[in-house]
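Need UTP--glucose-1-phosphate uridylyltransferase's 3D structure for a figure. Predict it.
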Amino acid sequence: MEPAKIKAVMPVAGLGTRFLPATKATPKEMLPVVDKPAIQYVVEEAVAAGIRDVLMIIGRNKNAIANHFDSVPELEEKLEAKGDEAKLGRVRASSGLADVHLLRQGEPKGLGHAVSRARSHVGDAPFVVMLGDDLIDERDPLLPTMIDVHEKKAAMVIALMEVDPDHIHLYGCASVEPTDMPDVVKVVDLVEKPSKEDAPSNLAIIGRYLLTPAIFEVLEHTQPGKGGEIQLTDALKEFATDPEKVDVYGVVFRGRRYDTGDKLDYIKAIMRIAADRDDLGPELRPWIKEFAASL
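Structure prediction for UTP--glucose-1-phosphate uridylyltransferase:
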């Protein structure tokens, strides 16, 4: 399937309680990562893969997200009058990135429930689910590989990453079998946030999924799991363990990924991205070394 026909679903209804009080009035997804809100990186990733139709599943107090991807004529006029073409270009880039649609999740019942809300929008076509806490470096594209595996295997595809076994309890974990494709595995079982002792591998699910509409029927009867929420991992487990259903494959991602899900990882993400930038890195990298030496 052409990427242009695949839609992206981005669940952004979370309350962002780890970042309070910063997220009391500002959506977590709008917190800046250097000079762009985190969610813009995710939309840019979708667009780079050829996907321009983006559905955001939102909760209350998420109007700032809609405003960011809308045009702001008064700001654009001021920048144009000043002749500040660089800033004007950056402002217009965010509003012209993609066709962004918004849908309320309603009662927050977990990631699986948020995905189920996208049913009428995505229709009968495969779609990608992209979580805003995971930023994938533009130099290490992941979605094109996932789309390619989907086309070759006619399967659902999830992104996996090797993690320290001591941290596997923070993720959904995959039990896998090798395939004839490098860094592509067949998923035969999934466990949501297992203990280190119970984990079938150190392959953690990260926030990229390519799903088919078959997921919706399973989500309809998926019962609340970990945390009392409807888990997408539990629905995918049904496909992975049932030979009569659509297969699930995993792409093992070995590129650069930035986690913005908690305060420490968020700070690390900003430092890593800024240090790699041509406009900031030359001055920032020596300062980081000096600062580290002074600790």
